[in-house]
Specification:
transmembrane transporter activity; signal; eight-stranded mixed sheet; 39% helix; 13 helices; 2 domains; Dipeptide-binding Protein, domain 3; alpha/beta; elongated; D-Maltodextrin-Binding Protein, domain 2
């Protein structure tokens, strides 16, 4: 019987004109426009558009506001992934400025013309990897599932292809299509693994399409060996808490070494790390390619 209860995830722009001296301010603004200069901070209302408060990238963005002196007075608008993507799409349609908290693998980089901006202070870390964690005792209790989870590894392009296809169809269908087209790879994860007769296993995941994609693919692989698989989307901290307590059997969702570092270290020793299941991931701030900004340090402080 599954022990982990599902937890629900709660998932134009107006320009503020600040009077700083009447006619002088208006003349200065007009002069800037005539010179082709754009104050990016003003254009985005000194706001970074983020996602869910519980996400690792949200924590990193809050830290960036503290670490970068030029971001003094800026606001990090935490909402949801869906809301951020909606605002991004609308800004691109209207060729407006926007700064978002971004990550890949994600279909946004395949669908939209956006780019990361440099992070000289390294607040968002370097290249990330996604690791697999399992509850202690899983290897003894479910050696067949343990081996499949331990063998699971794929590429950034694999995950993003499912996420992009899922914009036109159900993610479950997109995952099945990927499995059908990459059966040899999937079979390699379970090669030599004996089948079981309806054994229950629960995987905890974060509620984002990247982790839903990996979870669905592994669900198919496990089911092919006779497992009954439950996927439970929860907040990142709950992923580590549930696996550490044995309330979930495993997770394919932790991003390391930066995004989920705090949770990883908080529960370290209470779960088993099976190693990377995907490498080459990244988090950071991103903007449309038409924006003339290359670094976080290019952003103007709020006056």
């Amino acid at each position: 019987m599954m022990k982990l209860k599902k937890i629900g995830i709660i998932a134009g722009l107006s320009l503020a004109l600040v009077a700083c001296g009447g006619d002088d301010s208006e003349e200065s603004s007009a002069e800037s426009e005539s010179n082709g200069e754009v104050n990016v901070g003003e254009e985005v209302e000194y706001t970074i558009t983020g996602i869910e408060p519980g996400a690792g990238i949200s924590q990193a963005t809050n830290k960036a506001l503290e670490e970068y002196d030029n971001l003094e007075g800026w606001t990090h608008e935490e909402s949801s992934t869906a809301a951020m993507l909606t605002e991004l799409g609308e800004a691109l349609d209207n060729e407006e400025e926007i700064i978002i908290a971004a990550w890949n693998p994600h279909y946004m980089f395949a669908k939209y013309d956006i780019k990361y901006i440099d992070d000289p202070k390294g607040v968002y870390g370097g290249e990330e990897y996604i690791t697999t964690i399992a509850r202690k005792g899983l290897k003894e209790d479910m050696p067949e599932a343990y081996e499949i989870l331990d063998n699971f590894y794929w590429e950034v392009e694999d995950m993003e292809s499912i996420m992009l296809a899922a914009q036109e169809k159900d993610l479950e269908e997109a995952a099945q299509d990927w499995v059908d087209e990459n059966q040899e790879t999937v079979d390699s994860w379970s090669e030599g693994v004996d089948s079981v007769d309806g054994q229950d296993i629960e995987l905890a995941l974060t509620p984002w399409d990247s982790e839903r994609a990996s979870a669905q693919v592994v669900k198919i692989a496990l089911e092919s060996k006779g497992f009954n698989v439950t996927l439970t989307p929860v907040d990142p901290q709950i992923v580590f808490q549930a696996v550490s307590a044995g309330d979930a059997d495993a997770s394919l969702a932790p991003w390391m070494p930066q995004t989920h570092k705090d949770f990883y270290e908080k529960y370290e020793g209470e779960y088993e790390d099976l190693g990377a299941n995907l490498e080459g991931a990244k988090i950071g701030l991103a903007v449309p390619t038409y924006m003339d900004v290359e670094s976080i340090e290019d952003l103007e402080p709020k006056e």
